[in-house]
Design a protein that fits this description.
heterodimer, A: 134 residues, mainly alpha, 434 Repressor (Amino-terminal Domain), Arc Repressor Mutant, subunit A, elongated, B: 2,3-Dihydroxybiphenyl 1,2-Dioxygenase, domain 1, 2 helices
Chain lengths: 134, 120
């Protein structure tokens, strides 16, 4: 689940029900501020793990959906990191750089493999064939 | 017999808890000193096979996967898909050099095929 897309879709739904429903009102309902939400929706700010959980609860997502959104968020963080020249194909290094737990990194790597967004070609070479917009 | 089952893997939403439970219950050795921090559980016995614990995907209950060693992971994937399997995780080379892939059999059971470091 891509939480950013979910938020955009939810805002659209609310505007269909009430044409005067504003981004500011949506931010208030999500427990955040207008500027933060605006940046998040435009992809200019990265969702923090705390905001993923907070928005998930406010949107009444299931625990499984919130966990899924969190894992996608972790996968996106790895994809962003992979663009660095200094990137190392190593779970422990990724965990240190992202601040994620080793389990979160490994689960996100498995997700990327499943989504065909990561290819482990050799013990030391990983490829990310589909550059992500995250 | 060719293509033996060489290991088992528990996928759990609570990998720490699962690993600790089996470690304590059976006095198995728990070792995470590897590149992935993978929780290896070893009985130390000549009988049976060893295994490990990996975090489960979100919203999925704990389950067990079997690893079958094959001489050629890519060839096995081709044959498995001919027989109706789906590829969940394509052939991947792990940091220790071993190759593996995760497949879903036609009845819905996931399993892994692996090949000990093909470069050796």
């Amino acid at each position: 689940m891509d939480l950013r897309q979910t938020l955009t879709a939810e805002l659209g739904q609310r505007r269909l029900r009430n044409a005067r429903y504003s981004l500011r009102a949506f931010a208030r309902d999500l427990g955040t501020d207008h500027a933060t939400l605006s940046q998040l929706l435009r992809g200019r700010r990265v969702l923090s793990p705390r905001l993923v959980r907070q928005f998930g609860r406010k949107l009444h997502l299931s625990t499984a959906d919130i966990a899924d959104a969190s894992e996608q968020h972790h996968a996106d963080a790895i994809l962003r990191l992979s663009r660095l020249a200094s990137f190392r194909p190593n779970s422990r290094w990724i965990a240190t750089r992202t601040g994620l737990s080793l389990d979160s990194v490994n689960a996100a790597l498995a997700r990327l493999l499943h989504q065909r967004q990561l290819v482990m070609e050799s013990a030391t070479q990983w490829k990310f064939p589909h550059p992500h917009h995250a | 017999m060719p293509n033996p089952v060489v290991r088992w893997q528990i996928l759990s939403p609570e990998p720490n808890q699962a690993a600790a439970f089996y470690q304590k219950l059976f006095a198995w050795k728990l070792d995470q000193a590897n590149a992935l921090g993978y929780r290896e559980l070893r009985s130390g016995s000549d009988a049976g096979i060893d295994g490990g614990v990996w975090p489960a995907p979100p919203g999925v209950k704990s389950f067990v996967q079997l690893f079958i060693e094959v001489p050629d992971v890519a060839a096995c994937i081709t044959r498995a898909t001919e027989l109706g399997a789906q590829v969940l995780i394509p052939k991947s080379v792990l940091p220790d050099g071993d190759a593996m892939a995760v497949l879903l059999d036609p009845t819905g059971i996931s399993f892994a095929v692996c090949q000990t470091n093909p470069q050796l």
